[in-house]
Amino acid sequence: MGRKKKEFKFIDLFAGIGGFHIAMHENGGECVFASEIDKFARQTYEHNFKNISSKIFENGNFNQDITDLNLDYSKIPDFDILCAGFPCQPFSHAGLKKGFDDTRGTLFFNIKEIVKAKIEGHKKNPKKTIPKVLLLENVKGFRNHDKGNTYKRIKEILNDLGYEVKEEILNSKHFGVPQNRERIFIVAWYRDLINERDFKFPYGLTEEDKVIYDQSQRDKLSKQIKVGDILLTNKQLSLLETKAKKSYTISAKLWAGHQRRKAEHKTKGNGFGYSSFNANSQYTSTISARYYKDGSEILIEQKSIKGREDRPRKLHPIEAARLQGYPIDDWYEIPVSDNQAYKQFGNSVSVPVVKTLASEILNQLLGNGK
Q1: Is the domain of 25 the same as that of 83?
Q2: Which residues pair with 170 in a beta bridge?
Q3: 369 within a domain of the structure (yes/no)
Q4: Does 88 participate in catalysis according to the annotation?
Q5: Does residue 95 form part of some domain?
Q6: Residue 2 lies in a domain
Q7: DSSP letters spanning 302-338
Q8: Who's near 123: CB < 8 A, 6+ residues apart?
Q9: Of 229, 270, 311, 355, which is least packed with CB atoms within 10 Å of its CB?
Q10: pLDDT in tens, 185-223
């Protein structure tokens, strides 16, 4: 993994397995604090970043519970960018219009309190750093959650803290990975430190990795992808199956169940049920944290493989990693079970999307063009 001169510092909240960490590090960032509560995700995170960002593991800045009342937010090391793929939780209707306190009980509350502590710390000591940019991620439906009230309140709170806020829904399939995955990304910048009125979101990447800023052109200009780009060869898969003493082809019983449920849904007039793809498919559906249960959202056809032609298979964890843009063929490793790996990649951000966003934040807002 290429190391660049550290140009800025970032913190990684609800860090998962490090999608934001990779994106920021590859753009020259230094991680000074990370937090993740799931013990298996923590295992994957430390395994992959202990050499890249050794200090956070040595000095106690790899936090387990961001809601811990004993954690003094003012003691978190100063940083320029806050990254957080935070879980979506509703605010109570009773709490609305009660100011900052109406986020109490939600995990956004902790993001806001960290930022607030840093701003107040700067007021007391000008040498302390105010967070310049916040990069937040959530599911596509977050913007309309609770009839739009949840996002509206979050935007108001960030505005009151001193931040300009813009949001956009981006799709991984426009950034070089064959997955139809839509997520909302929120970029907020501190207006007293960054004199910008707007932020141009990157809507995709061309074959030459040039950024596409025109939303209407993203389907036409984005790099050509297909599911075959992330699939193991039949030989590679067979070797991995032999080594693991397991098969990724789903059982006859599970396959019969998938087909039965799909037929039942079709009778009811809806399109629910399993989804199957092959090497020539343009992209898969969205991989989710529940993929480990039955693989129904992404099944890979095996009609051309002797002895497997009657049933499809699940993705191998290596393929799930590739589907999310992780450098699994370079340096990134999977130290956990298949089930945990599926959960982790299903919960993750797509690395090429956040890597592009990180680059644009540096270029447009922090003036650190490469």
Answers
A1: yes
A2: 183
A3: no
A4: yes
A5: yes
A6: no
A7: -TTSTTTTTS-BPPPHHHHHHHTT--TTTT----S-H
A8: none
A9: 270
A10: 999 999 999 999 999 999 999 999 999 999 999 999 999
Q: What's the confidence (pLDDT) of residue 308? A: 81
Q: Give the domain range for residue 179.
A: 8-224+350-364
Q: Give me the pLDDT at residue 257, please.
A: 93
State how many domains the chain has: 2
Instruction: Evaluate the CA torsion angle 308, 313, 316, 320 in order and state its sign.
Output: positive
Same structural domain for residues 216 and 332?
no
Do 73 and 205 lie in a common domain?
yes
Distance CA 20, CA 53 (A): 13
d(CA 300, CA 284): 10
pLDDT, tens digit, 9 for 90 and up, residues 251-296: 999 999 999 988 887 777 776 789 999 999 999 999 999 999 999 9
Q: Give CA–CA dist 176/369, Å, rounded.
A: 22
Cβ distance 170 to 146 under 8 Å?
A: no
Backbone angles phi, psi at 368, to 5 degrees: -105, 45
Whether pLDDT at 4 is above 70: no
Query: Which of 52, 88, 194, 254 does the annotation list as catalytic?
Result: 88
214 and 332 within one domain: no
Contact at 8 Å (CB) between 199 and 213? no
Token pair belonging to 46: 């430390």
